[in-house]
Predict the 3D structure of the following.
Amino acid sequence: MRPSLERLFGDYYAYHTDPTNVAIHKVAIPLIVYHVLAMLDWVPLGLELAEYSVTLAHPVFALAALWYIYMSPRLALVMVPFSALCLYVGRLSSTEAVIGVALLAWVAQLVGHLRYEGRAPAFKDNLVQLLVGPVYFIATSLGWWTPSSAENERSAS
């Protein structure tokens, strides 16, 4: 994992310390990845590859995948297939289901931040945190990064 991703994780952690908010995020963030890719898949780019319609979801997915691979190949091994699955399932989902998931996930996130965390989401201050959130929860769920990693890094500097 690149040191810059470690620092981004430390910043992200500062916005996610309340256990209830963290639990909400562990459910809502995967749903947000799903709905964002599904909605981007609604925007055709007018290209066909082997009779497959290329949409805005494809270059966004590719750029995000490259960023994840660059930042942490190990985390990318989880995040990229998960994102591909979200894109696939999104293509099979009804418009109403995708919109319902989007509303549910974002309302839950906002409740988590306003009610339990008492502060705005991390992406309000740094839009890169929109990419960080999903891999942060993968890394913390798998034990590949802990908040003490950030504290150790801060005390060393």
